[in-house]
Amino acid sequence: MIKVVRGNPTREELAAVVSVLSVARAPVFPSVPPRPTGWGSRRLLLRTPHAYGMTGWLTPVLPC
Question: pTM score, two decimals?
């Protein structure tokens, strides 16, 4: 409830004050959403390129 102590504001002026106060009270959300990890990560769905050559497909499996 808003009570005007002094003066005679118009409806538009009261609406402006109420809107400013409601925006100032609103929670602040981060502008960048957090990056998903684990199962929600799109990065894990992308494949890595294979090495060239006849045994290139074995490269990730065999130790160096």
Answer: 0.38
